[in-house]
Specification:
Blueprint: H1 2-5, H2 7-11, E1 20-25, E2 28-33, H3 40-48, H4 60-79, H5 85-99, H6 118-135, H7 148-152, H8 158-194, E3 199-204, E4 207-213, H9 214-236, E5 241-242, H10 259-271, E6 276-277, H11 281-286, H12 289-315, E7 326-327, H13 345-369, H14 379-403, E8 409-410, H15 412-421, H16 430-433, H17 435-448, H18 452-458, H19 464-470
Parallel strand pairs: 5-6
Antiparallel strand pairs: 1-2, 3-4, 7-8
Length: 492
């Protein structure tokens, strides 16, 4: 983890001069690396929060969204005459550079941190201030010309800027997640069409039930995943209500009365999103319900993906001593001791991603409950859990589609043979023979290791033509495709 946290510093070591610049805060003076765009408060956070090894720069959407919030604030402060045109222009230019991907390596604080996100907010304030200083012709650290708190953070608090930026990032990240999901759905749908004529046994409680097609299996996967698009869209819209302008606890202290509406208007223009100010900023500052709702939607998708992957592992099991109805693409040798063994590694890894997402959802729930009074200080772990879940699920779905679903083939002959040999066919005879008679037939077939078809003819229960019609696998895979034969339709 320490290596991950320090990766940017290590990668850029060849450019470091060893020079430092002095900076001060309320705790005293420290020497900050001369080349760094961050300042003393970020330096302290690096020392204090070497926790997860996952730095802010792992998630560019959060950084660019922070920059958008800071630009909106600079615009509003300029319009209100609180920030002069020279400083505001430099801050806005710096924000746009960061929003476009520059200086992200200087966003180095750990995602999990104490302080309710203050270190993340100050990391952004310091990087933007120091870049603005350069644009103004000054050196980094000459904060009398452009200060991280007095100018970049003007009319803001971490408690409104940080959650607003995170919500913007999650809304922006939801689109790519849904796009990947759509592509996976299409892959399942194509397989459903490819396997439309492959008859197989359906199973309940892992026991033979009634016939179906392999195409129906894969089409069902497409349909169940398609339902999650609406859930993700609906729940992500909750993030469009933000508390920006509420400052510390929602009362708007240290902000002009006109600031809140003005900054929301600018943020809407910058992001292109229908951002709205929360009706009650005090409530919105302490509430984390939108994170809980979105996490539930992400978890629900993960649960469905995991169930599907369980099915894929069962359907491809064997290949000779298991179900063996489908073949997954062979990707790597499966054992260091058993030659020829190939494992379902892609469904396995997607299962594990789903477990992680479920655990992250529990973390979000506990952290949301841990809020106290006017602020929930546990937002950093909520944010880290959510963005990690989204990124892992997105990567998992890309992998599942490209390295598994697209390459699945069917063992058609084996599937058909299992249907013809299955005791489950007796279900189709129930309307004609009754439940008790069919139960006896099933038991006899099992005990004698014989087929239902032969037993019915042997016992003279039905003639061959009627039996063929009732036991046609193709006639049993679509609702209403065959009129059931009632007992009074045929003499017994």
């Amino acid at each position: 983890m320490q290596g991950a946290t320090n990766r940017v510093i290590d990668a850029g070591a060849q450019y470091e001069s060893g020079k430092t610049r002095p900076e001060k805060d309320l705790l005293g003076e420290r020497n900050v690396p001369y080349e760094a765009y961050y300042g003393i408060q970020t330096l302290r956070a690096l020392e204090n929060f070497n926790i997860s090894g996952i730095a802010l720069n792992f998630y560019p959407l959060i950084i660019s969204s922070l920059a958008m919030v800071k630009e909106a604030a600079a615009r509003a402060n300029r319009d209100l005459g609180l920030l002069d045109s020279v400083r505001s222009a430099a801050i806005i230019a710096a924000c746009r550079e960061v929003a476009n991907g520059k200086l992200h390596s200087h966003f180095t604080v750990d995602m999990i941190q104490g302080g309710a996100g203050t270190s993340t907010n100050m990391n952004a304030n310091e990087v933007i201030a120091n870049r603005a200083l350069e644009l103004l012709g000054h050196n980094r650290g000459e904060y009398r010309y452009c200060h991280p708190n007095n100018h970049v953070n003007l009319s803001q608090s971490t408690n409104d800027a940080y959650p607003t930026a995170v919500k913007i990032a999650l809304v922006r990240g939801n689109g790519p997640l849904i796009q990947v999901l759509r592509e996976l759905i299409q892959s399942f749908r194509r397989k459903g069409q490819e396997f439309v004529g492959v008859i197989k046994m359906g199973r309940t409680q892992l026991q033979d039930a009634v016939p179906m097609t392999l195409g129906q299996t894969f089409e069902a996967y497409a349909v169940t995943l398609e339902e999650e698009i609406l859930r993700l869209e609906e729940n992500s819209r909750l993030f469009l209500e933000v508390n920006l302008g509420g400052t510390a606890i929602g009362t708007g202290i240290n902000a002009d009365p006109a600031y809140a509406n003005l900054v929301i208007r600018h943020l809407r223009e910058i992001t292109g999103l229908e951002v709205v100010r929360a009706e009650n900023l005090v409530e919105a500052t302490q509430d984390t319900g939108s994170f809980v709702m979105y996490s539930m939607a992400v978890k629900r998708l993960a649960i469905k993906l995991s169930k599907i992957c369980n099915d894929l592992r069962l359907l491809s099991s064997g290949p000779r001593a298991g179900l063996g109805e489908i073949n997954l693409p062979p990707l790597q040798p499966g054992s260091s001791i058993m030659p020829g063994k190939v494992n379902p590694v892609i469904p396995e890894v997607v299962n594990q991603v789903a477990f992680k997402v479920m655990g992250n959802d529990l973390t979000v729930s506990i952290a949301a409950e841990a809020g106290q009074l006017e602020l929930n200080v546990m937002e950093p772990v909520i944010v880290q859990s959510l963005v990690q879940s989204v990124e892992m699920l997105k990567n998992a779905m890309v992998t599942l589609k490209a390295r598994c679903i697209d390459g699945i083939t069917a063992n058609e002959a084996h599937c058909r043979q299992t249907v013809l040999n299955s005791i489950g066919l007796v279900t189709a005879l129930t309307p004609a023979l009754g439940y008790e008679r069919c139960s006896l037939l099933a038991r006899e077939a099992l005990e004698q290791d014989r087929g239902v078809y032969d037993l019915v003819l042997e016992q003279g229960l039905l003639d061959r033509e009627t039996l063929d019609a009732l036991l046609s696998p193709e006639g049993m895979v679509e609702p209403g495709s065959q009129r059931p034969l009632r007992r009074n339709d045929h003499p017994l």
